Amino acid sequence: MFGLIGHLTSLEHAQSVAAELGYPEYADQGLDFWCSAPPQIVDDITVTSVTGQTIQGKYVESCFLPEMLATRRIKAATRKVVNAMAHAQKHGINITALGGFSSIIFENFNLEQVQQVRNVMLDFQRFTTGNTHTAYIICRQVEKGASQLGIELSNATIAVCGATGDIGSAVCRWLNECTNVAELLLIARNQERLHDLQAELGRGKIMELTEALPLADIVVWVASMPKGMEIDPVTLKRPCLLIDGGYPKNLATKIQQPDVYVLNGGIVEHSLDIEWKIMRIVNMDVPARQLFACFAESMLLEFEKWYTNFSWGRNRITVEKMEQIGKVSVKHGFSPLLI
Amino acid sequence: MPQLEASVAVDFTSEEYRDAYSRINAIVIEGEQEAVGNYTKLAELLPDSREQLLSLAKMESRHKKGFEACGRNLSVTPDMDFAREFFSQLHQNFQTAAAAGNVVTCLLIQALIIECFAIAAYNIYIPVADDFARKITEGVVKDEYAHLNFGEQWLSEHFETAKADLEAANRQNLPLVWKMLNQVEGDAQVLGMDKDALVEDFMIQYGEALANIGFSNRDVMRLSAMGLAAI
């Protein structure tokens, strides 16, 4: 059985979903209530691959809300993640993806130190961040999206914002090794990590965001911030492909300019048969046909019975592992969301 | 991304800590004492489980002694008057149910609500406790899971007939727990225990117990949040 740990995008969203699902006790409550709310299994999922194989899964709502980070309720935020993990493990789920902010919080606050949650000893082998598949899908979005827009990678400049993160560094590795992209611009806050990445790649220009954006034919946004991202679209090149792989995804609604194409990054389209209610609620544009790539990773691991924390720890994603997950992604019917 | 603040070291000998501890320690001691009485009463009401219930009562009595030692270790005199008053309404509800022979309500109050609350509070306390109290509490919390298990098992075996009584008893008693928690929020904070963490751990433990008894996921969400909004 596979699991997905998810959360809603804002307090307002959480309240409306609780009302829609028929939980009035949760619907009218403020942030304090959500800081105390326990994890819940809110959906059972049956997935049939294009190969005909069928698997079962559960959706665990962690009750985390991004406002917890914005208002510095950090302890509450970290509790949501480990409690949801303990909940998934207690329910016998073999492999669970940490969706949305869950994996970011896990990494950022070093939650691997939290091994015991009440009477549950967390078995990290049962969890995956899903970042390998997300990084793979973003790379395929870059390649295919560029081709759709007539951008030749051999002449193109790609800016990776959040380059030193787990997904960002994996994207850089792939672009460096598997494509002939002309120029890579590396953007992140931590200078030391940026220099390490540059040394590893043997290329890439370290730049400030505002300096890099006007130069880029393709912008890969993979930084995550509680309130999303602000980009001044006027400075962008035309055409420009913006791949919003951050969380939450808000570029598409904010940037509406001619010849600037915004693509929700790390999203897969699929032709699988997925029976579940929750995707309609978690704000997918086409809930029946789209899905977060990190969630899809736990499905792939379940299909292939690879019961291991396939994506774990920071900056350990190799091109080989991206190719490995990419192969089974295609096999089971997932493809990158395109323009 | 914001950073986690380093936790402030607790001074177990400060006047403020010992003052707060005098109430929290008393509540724990009184809670264990109430449990002794409640399991002894349940042994009368459930003669088939008499031996088991009396052995649970004995364990609670041992826990009480352990927590008394924790108070002495910090040279704190527990404020037992405060603690008896603190438990009075829940105590009264148990006595009324016992007098009416309502085993389901008695089990919900003692074996589910009080045990789940104890487990939540002890689990949140352990990481911030002094070394002496930590060892005692770690031992106690293991026993409390066994007590919770007794109530869960009995109630799941009688789920169909007990369901309505459980709902009514939950409606009557869970809001009391939230009120009690509010009353000691400040003292718990001095001991390094956050109220939202206590509520969350309680809801997890209580929700699991209700699910084990036979309630659906939807019922669990409704029952475990009962009255929480009003506080």
Characterization of the model:
- The complex is a heterodimer of chains A (339) and B (231).
- Chain A is α/β, with parallel strands linked by helices and 339 residues long.
- Chain A is built from 14 helices and 17 strands.
- Chain A has helices spanning 11-21, 24-27, 31-36, 67-70, 74-90, 101-108, 131-149, 166-178, 191-201, 209-212, 251-254, 278-281, 293-303, 319-332, and strands at residues 2-6, 40-48, 54-61, 95-98, 116-117, 120-121, 127-128, 157-161, 183-187, 205-206, 218-221, 240-244, 260-264, 267-270, 273-275, 290-292, 334-336.
- Chain A has a six-stranded mixed sheet with strand order 7-4-1-3-2-15, sandwiched between helices.
- In chain A, β12, α11 and β13 (260-264) form a beta-alpha-beta unit.
- The radius of gyration of chain A is 19 Å and the shape is globular.
- The mean pLDDT of chain A is 91.
- With 231 residues, chain B is mainly α.
- In chain B, α4 runs antiparallel to α5.
- The longest helix of chain B has 31 residues, at 15-45.
- The two termini of chain B are 31 Å apart.
- The chains are: A alpha/beta (339), B mainly alpha (231).
Main features:
heterodimer, A: 339 residues, alpha/beta, 6-stranded mixed β-sheet, 6-stranded parallel β-sheet, 14 helices, 21% strand, B: 231 residues, mainly alpha, 9 helices, 79% helix, globular
Number of helices of chain A: 14
Which blocks of ≥5 consecutive residues of chain A have pLDDT under 50?
none
Which chain pair has the greatest contact? Answer: A-B, 35 and 29 residues
Annotation field: number of helices of chain B: 9
Average pLDDT over all residues of chain B: 93
Write down the Rg of chain B: 17 Å
What is the CA–CA distance across the termini of chain A? Answer: 33 Å
Helix content of chain A: 25-40%
* Mean pLDDT value of chain A: 91
Spatial strand order of the main sheet of chain A: 7-4-1-3-2-15
Oligomer: heterodimer
Approximate shape of chain A: globular
Q: Which structural class best describes the helix and strand composition of chain B? A: mainly alpha
What share of the residues of chain B lie within helices? over 70%
Total beta strands of chain A: 17
Distance between the terminal alpha carbons of chain B, to the nearest Å? 31 Å
Overall geometry of chain B: globular
